[in-house]
Design a protein that fits this description.
It is a single chain. By secondary structure, this protein is of the alpha/beta class. It has a single domain, classed as Aconitase, domain 4 (Alpha-Beta Barrel). It is 35% helix and 14% strand. The strands form two sheets. Strands 1-6-7-8 form a four-stranded antiparallel beta sheet, with no helix packed on it. Strands 2-3-4-5 form a four-stranded parallel beta sheet. It is globular, with a radius of gyration of 21 Å.
């Protein structure tokens, strides 16, 4: 998993509630392929002839290279498809700021190096206004080490994240990576079990 410490990039506003994983990353449809940067918001970005829809936020010139997305409530609801996060990361968006996230989508973000930030309503509103005001002219910063979002004019929006989640992102470790840090202890336990219960080491043959 890619390390996340501090990200400075353009912030794009997609201020909608209940954006679901099928909208974020359609699994089927005209022109959709396995290049996850192309699948992101495919049905909103392109028409039936594969032409860009000019007024969709990520097709606006100032937001085409966005790395931070600010959105509304219950982002990532719907199915549990992990490709929704792969599409965001493939496009280059590695921080999503919302009022709330669907639980499974949030977990998928943490496992794929994408920082999910939840802000209270007043802070979220103030940041959204600032994103609209800046309109892609200057970058914002998502600072995981300091746990804050910083605007181009140095306004700061602190956010909470569990210590274990923060540590995993800072070190670029998904669940498997965290487990492998204990590889020696796991091997020692397996060896101990093999000595204490040898009958468990031989799989029964099917009849």
């Amino acid at each position: 998993m890619k390390v996340f410490t501090r990200l400075t990039g353009m912030a794009a506003p997609l201020l909608q509630n209940d954006v679901n994983t099928d909208q974020i990353s359609p699994v089927a449809g005209h022109g959709v392929d396995t290049d996850y940067s192309n699948t992101l918001f495919y049905r909103q970005r392109y028409d039936s002839d594969d032409n860009e829809i000019a007024d969709f936020v990520l097709n606006l010139p100032q937001f085409k290279a966005a790395q931070i997305l600010i959105t509304g409530d219950n982002f990532g609801c719907g199915s549990s498809r992990e490709s929704a996060v792969w599409s965001l990361a493939g496009y280059g968006i590695r921080c999503v700021i919302a009022l709330s996230f669907a639980d499974i989508f949030r977990e998928n973000c943490l496992r794929n190096g994408v920082l999910p930030v939840v802000l209270p309503a007043d802070q979220h509103r103030a940041l959204a206004l600032k994103v609209a005001e800046i309109d892609g002219a200057e970058p914002f910063t998502a600072d995981l080490e300091a746990q804050k979002i910083v605007t181009p004019d140095k306004l700061e929006f602190p956010f909470d994240i569990a210590a274990a989640e923060r540590d995993s992102l800072l070190r670029g470790l998904d669940d498997i990576g965290v487990s492998l840090e204990h590889e020696d202890e796991i091997a020692a336990w397996e060896h101990s079990m093999a000595e204490r219960r040898p009958w468990l080491q031989t799989a029964a043959r099917p009849r």
